[in-house]
Write a structure and sequence with these properties.
- The structure is a single chain.
- With about 900 residues, this protein is an alpha/beta fold.
- It folds into 7 domains: about 90 residues, no CATH class; about 180 residues, 3-Layer(aba) Sandwich (Dna Topoisomerase Vi A Subunit, Chain: A, domain 2); about 80 residues, no CATH class; about 200 residues, 3-Layer(aba) Sandwich (Rossmann fold); about 90 residues, Winged helix-like DNA-binding domain superfamily/Winged helix DNA-binding domain (Arc Repressor Mutant, subunit A, Orthogonal Bundle), CATH 1.10.10.10; about 110 residues, no CATH class; about 50 residues.
- It contains 38 helices and 31 strands.
- Strands 4, 5, 6, 7, 8 and 9 form a 6-stranded mixed β-sheet that branches. The chain has a 5-stranded parallel β-sheet with strand order 18-19-22-17-23. A 5-stranded antiparallel β-sheet has the order 30-29-28-27-31.
- Strand 28 and strand 29 form a beta hairpin.
- Helix 6 runs parallel beside helix 10, helix 14 packs across helix 15 and helix 36 packs across helix 38.
- The radius of gyration is 39 Å and the shape is elongated.
- The chain starts with a helix and ends with a strand.
Length: about 900
């Protein structure tokens, strides 16, 4: 009674009355086995378990190994299903066989030797039953016949879609049991259609073949009882009992080899060409040249249109022509239905679910190139290349001096700008845009060279490797992103006339998923764009997004040098022969430099950092207001307030008043505070916060500018402002940073500390003390240099060397505001000494030193010079603007005098 009561309670807790009646009363299954293997499930829980929306409550059936199925009360049909399935499995879950959980013996499936003793034996060999569905397995196990359940007749083998070779193997549970010596009796449903259903027969034959490979006996019991006696083995046992099933079914089970013979005889008599056999032959012959691109829903052919090394999309008619050509060599008797059937099978056999181009390689007309080592490899289909640059790598010896000279002219002599462009082209060719998450924005009037630069990049890529679009189309046409798939670059025009949402542009440049939807073709998935977006406009892009999401992605470059109409040249035609040389020059840039110039442009190129500030002020009204009306204060805490309160005391009223005065729309208070915090924290690097007390909500670290205030501007002078925060003084931020770097060096020696005379002073006042300590004191007490001291030197030697470096460093600091004096000092130093002194300086300070040296440098024959970052020697120079340069041993080309700078080797 206790067991019955326990089972009844357990069953009541797990099954509704309806499900208990269905399982126990109607099906006649054992309540104890049902209680531990089945439970009722409502729609909400079923949806969570399945991973997609369930439309009906039902029963979840799950065995001891975890895999299970859902049987809805009311089966439903999805749009892509021909009929409503009675059972459903969870999405993205690998199917397996199901092992019914024993209600009293937890080791039922674990103790294999004990399990063999329970099995039905044929010729002394223990055999497990194999059927379809957990209910049938429960019926077998509860009647003394250990039975394994499959989710379906096809689910005894792994899915072919998960194997790129299209091979199917036993699911894990079946393989485990077969390896451990269990024989098998396959007992699928006995309805009349099973005997005539070729798919069921084929599935049974495949499954039996795979089981037999483990050298265990396999028997067939399917069809040994009539449909009138019960459709499945559970129905048969319910109607006739377990003994009858053992004596009239299992005893008559047929050896697989005997059962298989009937089909082999049928196969030998059938001389008709089979679709599956023919498709398998074509797949084997064409696997290296033909592929079905699942995401694109299109056929791809290797070296289509004679493009070496590249896979290209072909129309379905061309794929059909391949099938027809092969078919006609074998027979003249076939139908269009046969051809379409073969094409359908080929899609499964030649499918590529995720087309992955080999990373780190690019394809040219004569080779595949490793972009990291510049090593050449022959073309191979396995690279999965979708694009080819339109020239040969072997032609690169031509160089590209003409192109580099023009770039320097277009950038008005700024070599660091040329390096930014070079890095941008490198990221485009190597498809590192998704990694670096920046887009190139070229801004300037017509005739400044921005259009020529874009056409140079386009010529380098080739027409099929880039897409041209407009912001309006990109943001509002849902099919537009599909045209960007497989491209190395996207060029956007007419951007200055668009002021709307830029969410797609942010996804495009942020390595996010994009829709891959073609018109008239059902969307099959998404993709990430790994190329670079290039934008050329007469004005800066405006948008309704004032957060840092767009600001941090834009790499803006102004083009201001307008070339007179009569001086313009056909540069596209002029540059064409130099494209291979341009590619070599671009790829020779180290990957870390590419990442630095594209990803951290403002730090390496101060002049572009200034322009980025201009861009921020011109595109973000809130930043413009903050620059005009706020200032930084470390201890400030300013209330947000409501519109209508005092504009002198509260942030939001002050903003509203400014917006009305400057004809800007007014954003809501909630959006105002959120975007203001984003501006302060993410774009200005001010650690502001929104706090609340009894008086209201406040923003920290900022205050409202009042008449007479002369604080640094919050945005356009933010560097000086933040240095003021560090030093608590009005000292020159350049000097403060350089001195701070010296004091903060890890190599202080005892007695060599600038502040050794004031050890008791709190470290928070160090910056202030550094700017008030006299020059005499600094010379009397040797300061720590900005570079690491050499290891294992004597104290006297170290002190002498340090004293000399500090003395020179002090001279540089004192002359910092006088560029001519600074330049003379820099040119008087040898390379080694200058390298040691500037080792701790930031890139901005190094550039300042270089500019200072350039202002006083005088060009002369036999002198060294810097040409585009390379050391050259001057062979000839006179009154003209052309100077002949070369190596130390050999003269070279003539270049413009404005392109040369002093060689400092830093």
């Amino acid at each position: 009674m206790k067991t019955i009561q326990t089972t009844a309670i357990l069953t009541a807790n797990r099954l509704t009355d309806r499900h208990y009646k269905e399982c126990v009363t109607n099906r006649g299954l054992c309540p104890e086995w049902i209680a531990v293997n089945c439970r009722s499930m409502e729609i909400k829980e079923a949806t969570q378990r399945l991973g997609y929306t369930a439309l009906s409550a039902g029963i979840w059936l799950s065995g001891s190994n975890g895999f299970g199925q859902y049987r809805p009360n009311k089966p439903w049909k999805s749009p892509d299903e021909k009929k409503a399935p009675k059972y459903r499995t969870a999405t993205r879950e690998e199917y397996d066989a199901m092992l019914p959980r024993h209600p009293h013996n937890p080791g039922y499936w674990k103790d294999l030797e004990a399990l063999k003793a329970l099995c039905y034996h044929i010729n002394g060999h223990p055999c497990l039953l194999l059927s379809e569905g957990l209910f049938k397995a429960i019926a077998g196990c509860s009647n003394g016949f250990p039975t394994v359940a499959l989710a379906g007749v096809e689910q005894g083998l792994t899915s072919a879609s998960n194997d790129p070779q299209g091979k199917r193997f036993l699911v894990d549970t079946l393989e485990f049991l077969a390896r451990n010596g269990f024989g098998w009796i396959i007992a699928f449903d006995a309805d009349e259609c099973a005997k005539a259903n070729k798919n069921v027969i084929a599935a049974q034959r495949k499954l039996a073949c795979q089981l037999a490979k483990f050298k265990v006996p396999v028997y067939i019991a399917t069809g040994l009882w009539s449909a009138a006696e019960g459709k499945g083995m559970d129905d048969y046992i319910q109607s006739n009992g377990g003994d009858a099933f053992r004596d009239k079914v299992l005893r008559l089970a047929v050896n697989f080899e005997t059962w298989e013979r009937q089909f082999k005889e049928d196969d030998s008599d059938n001389k008709t060409l089979s679709e599956s056999v023919f498709a398998a032959q074509i797949a084997e012959d064409y696997r290296a040249r033909l592929a079905w691109h699942v995401a694109n829903k299109a056929w791809y052919w290797y070296e289509a249109e004679n493009k070496r090394g590249v896979w290209g999309e072909i129309p379905v008619e061309e794929a059909m022509s391949i099938v027809l050509t092969e078919l006609e060599t074998r027979t003249r008797h076939f139908s269009s239905k046969f051809v379409n059937g073969v094409l359908t099978l080929l899609k499964a056999k030649l499918r590529v679910n995720h087309w992955e181009v080999r990373k780190g390689f690019i394809c040219l007309q004569d080779c595949v190139l490793d972009v990291n080592t510049l090593k050449e490899y022959p073309h191979e289909p396995g690279y999965r290349m979708l694009s080819q640059l339109p020239f040969k790598w072997a032609d690169r010896s031509v160089g590209c001096e003409t192109v580099k000279e023009w770039l320097l002219e277009a950038c008005e002599g700024k070599a660091d700008w040329v390096q930014v462009i070079r890095a941008g082209i490198n990221a485009t060719v190597t498809e590192r845009g998704g990694e670096l998450q920046r887009f190139m924005e070229l801004v300037g009037a017509g005739g400044t060279g921005k259009g020529t630069l874009l056409r140079l990049v386009q010529a380098l890529l080739g027409r099929e490797n880039y897409a041209i679009t407009e912001l309006k189309q990109l943001e509002q046409n849902r099919f537009e992103t599909a045209a960007l798939y497989g491209k190395k670059a996207v060029f956007i025009t007419d951007s200055e006339r668009y002021t709307g949402d830029v969410s797609t542009l942010k996804k495009l440049t942020g390595d996010d998923e994009l829709r891959h939807e073609k018109k008239g073709i059902q969307q099959t998935g998404s993709f990430r764009f790994s190329g670079v977006v290039w934008i050329a406009a007469n004005e800066i892009i405006q948008s309704s997004d004032y957060t840092n999401a767009l600001a941090r992605r834009r790499l803006s470059m102004p083009f201001e040098r307008v070339v007179p109409q009569n001086e313009r040249r056909p540069l596209e035609k002029e540059f064409q022969p130099y494209l291979p040389g341009v590619l070599q020059w671009v790829l020779e840039m180290p990957a870390k430099d590419v990442a630095a110039y594209v990803g951290d442009t403002n730090k390496l190129v101060p002049s572009l950092a200034s322009f980025s500030t201009e861009v921020l002020l011109s595109t973000n009204p809130l930043a413009d207001w903050a620059n005009d009306c706020l200032y930084y204060d470390l201890n400030a805490q300013t209330q947000i307030g409501d519109n209508g309160q005092s504009a002198e005391l509260f942030l939001y009223p002050n903003y509203c008043e400014w917006a009305q005065r400057n004809s800007h729309g007014i954003m809501t208070k909630q959006r105002f505070s959120a975007i203001l915090l984003n501006l302060l924290k993410s774009q200005l690097n001010i650690n502001a916060a929104k706090v609340r007390n009894k008086k209201g909500r406040f923003i920290t670290k900022i205050a409202i500018r009042q008449p007479g205030h002369d604080f640094p501007l919050l945005v356009s002078e933010k560097d000086a402002d933040l240095n003021a925060d560090l030093s608590k003084s009005s000292a020159n931020p350049v000097l403060t940073e350089m001195l701070t770097e010296s004091v903060d060096s890890a190599d202080f020696q005892g007695g060599a500390d600038l502040l050794a005379h004031s050890n008791a002073v709190d470290t928070t006042n160090q910056h202030y003390l550094m700017n008030t300590t006299s020059s005499q004191n600094q010379e009397d007490k040797p300061a720590q240099s900005a570079h690491p001291a050499p290891a294992r030197v004597s104290a006297s030697t170290h002190a002498s060397t340090t004293q000399k470096e500090v003395s020179t460093t002090q001279r540089i600091i004192e002359a910092w505001e006088d560029k001519s004096a600074l330049g003379e000092i820099v040119l008087s130093l040898d390379s080694a000494e200058l390298q040691q002194i500037t080792k701790g300086f930031s890139p901005e300070r190094l550039q300042y030193i270089k500019d200072a040296a350039n202002t006083v440098w005088r060009l002369g024959a036999d002198s060294q010079a810097d040409y585009n970052g390379e050391l050259v020697y001057i062979w000839e120079c006179g009154q003209s603007n052309d100077v002949r340069i070369g190596t130390k041993q050999k003269p070279g080309a003539r270049v413009r005098r404005a392109h040369l700078r002093p060689w400092l080797d830093i």
